[in-house]
Amino acid sequence: MASASRQESEETFNSRMSTAGLKFGGRFKPSDCKARNKVAIVVPYRDRKFHLKIFLRYIHPFLQRQQLEYAIVVVEQSDNLPFNRGLLMNIGFKEAQKQDRFQCFIFHDVDLLPENDGNTYACPEVGKPRQMAFSIDIYDYKPTPIDHFGGVSAFSTFDFRRVNGFSNVFFGWGSEDDDLYRRLLHHNLTVTRMHNLNTSTIVRYRMFDHQVAEPNPDRMRLFDQGTRRLEFDGLVDLRYRRLSVKFKPLYTHIIVDVQPQIHKTQSYQTKNE
């Protein structure tokens, strides 16, 4: 699926994207029509250079064929703390809003590629966040459980603020997406999926091979305590240090130090013990 992009040189691909209208920072607006949606794609990142290269070369033509106005924001965690996916999503949401008024956000793991152009990356309705990556090749495209909300998900900007974003406390693999799903239920939002007989092959994803992440040993305890943190753990309590913002040909690259958040996490744990 991505072999042609891999064979094309970086310079040639960047030139082709520039000719198509892609601006520095990974920003695109159709020239022949007025886009109905202005979408920010937020990608949490650390040490996946090869995956990021393939993802960017694949996703730009995919999004442009859907005639979206969009920007791709890659948020990289620089410190030696365990990876915190939810925290990086929150940071990407906040930093993207400094650049423009996006109607919606798609939170996208770097190792997932949509297989069919019919899989819309347009904005979901307010009140109806969309779970997108529920049919993946490594699981033989069998639907993931109904409460699965990981991989790729779409929110209106209003709804993501409403649920207070992701929890910031999940350092290491696991449970931040389960916690987010519970936040949606708490606010009576309706999770949607494009899943019926007519769309079952449209919403498929391919996942890159990658090393299995080490699970967070505290993830279930933190998840069990999540209802106590709904109002004060998330966008309203975001702590990080922005180290740099670079507008590259294919994406906006934000590097952050999340050390300030670890102190808040420790205070949550102490308070709830």
Q: Secondary-structure blueprint of this entry?
A:
Layout (H helix, E strand, L loop, with lengths): L2 H5 L2 H11 L6 E2 L9 E8 L3 H17 L3 E9 L7 H15 L4 E5 L3 E3 L15 E2 L20 E5 H6 L13 H11 L18 E3 L11 H6 L16 E7 L4 E6 L1 H14 L1
Parallel strand pairs: 2-3, 2-4, 3-10
Antiparallel strand pairs: 1-3, 4-7, 5-8, 6-7, 9-10
Helix % is 25-40%
Give me the CATH architecture, please.
Answer: Alpha-Beta Complex
Radius of gyration: 18 Å
* Sequence stretches where pLDDT stays below 50 over 5 or more residues: none
Count helical runs. 8
The CATH class assignment is: Alpha Beta
Distance between the termini: 49 Å
Q: Using the alpha-carbon principal axes, give the shape.
A: globular
The residue-averaged pLDDT reads: 88
Return the structural class. Answer: alpha/beta
